[in-house]
Design brief:
With 437 residues, this protein is mainly beta. Helix content is 7%, strand content 46%. The strands form 8 sheets. Strands 7-10-13-16-19-22-25-28-34-32-29 form an 11-stranded mixed beta sheet, with no helix packed on it. The chain has an 8-stranded parallel beta sheet with strand order 5-8-11-14-17-20-23-26, with no helix packed on it.
Length: 437
Amino acid sequence: MKKRHLAGMLALGFVGALFIGGHESSAEVLRGSIDLKGGTTTIVTENGVNVLKKGTKKYELTEETVIYSSCALTVNLNNTIPVNIDSIYTKSSLYVNGNGELNADTKQGQFGINVGGYFKPFYFSGKGKITAKGNEAGIRVHNEIRMKAGTVEAYGTNYGIWCNNDIKPFLSSVLKGTATEGTGIWAYRDIYAWSGATVVGEGQVSGARSAIAHIQAEGKGSSITGVSNDINSGVSALQADKKMLRAYCGAVVREEYRKPTFEISFDTPVFVTNYKTVKRNMNDMKNYTWASEPGGVYLNSQGGLLADPAKGSPSSMRVVGTRQAKNCCIINYGVKCEPTQLKYAGVHQVVFSEAPTAFKVTIKVNYWIDADGSGNYHLETKEFEYNLGENVSVDELKAQHPYNPGADYVSGSHASDFDATEDTTIDFYYEGDLMKK
């Protein structure tokens, strides 16, 4: 009997090990039909499975999970592996704490996270990460967004983040919104970055936009960056429709226009303020300091951008215009008629990334031929384009003459190969049949 009892225990232990080792959960899968009805919930990882606990109840979280609450909800992210769900919808406010990671990636829904009240991720405690993806907007919030730590990233078609009130990140918090077709971050009221916070919006039309209030960064280390993928959209990379951009106390407001439609060259100045999107927040290019990567861009006497050919000929450049206020309380001290408000060493940057260049050199070749030995020459001209600094082969240019292959080269203005440093005209002389190739 003892042997049988022992064998039974061993068998039971083996079966139990199967259940434990298989990362299975006996908890009910949380779906949108279940109303959590507010309160405090905690997400933890048990045997490799993420579950949500509320009181004595426990729910398994899957990629199909919709976390729904008709009342204000607190979610503590104590999970040790990222939790992947479909979406979150709260009719009232949503508070998120903890150091875990949550991904809400809805397949069919409009919003990855939809909040009917305040959205306060990592405002009270924790420094975790939230990523939300939606078919219209990654995150939609009816009231304010407030953060003090952690990272929130949102992706959508029309909006990355849509907020019907203020956006207020503080301290070490990072807030990012990306839209494939519209505006990265949209707020009805102010978009702030305070005391070291980082805000980044990127969109096809605009990076970040406020309908009736300011876009304002304040405090050293704070920055708001708006990235636009269309300089001709008519909406600035950072746009405060009714107010203006502000940067105070060492903070930075930064506009970036990716792949602008102008070309940087060494002979035709570019005036970026001719673009409506740029002109809204920058009145005079001469009030800004200009630099580029690689180097070479400078402001000419007319106030336009040119490139120094001696500094190289890249196919594209990153061009940056920077204006920094004096360290005093007077807005735009010493600068007139600039719409962006700076004080206490605040900074406004306008960046043109992947700006195309027109560093081309035209070599014009006059092909002269004396067809009958009379000394009277017939002329045919061809033009060839080279990159600035590219080596030009004289033998290759000679061979490009348009006449009968039997035509004989006699002389020319250039005998040796050279580098294309400027537009040049070359003369080559031939004798032979005028008939063209």
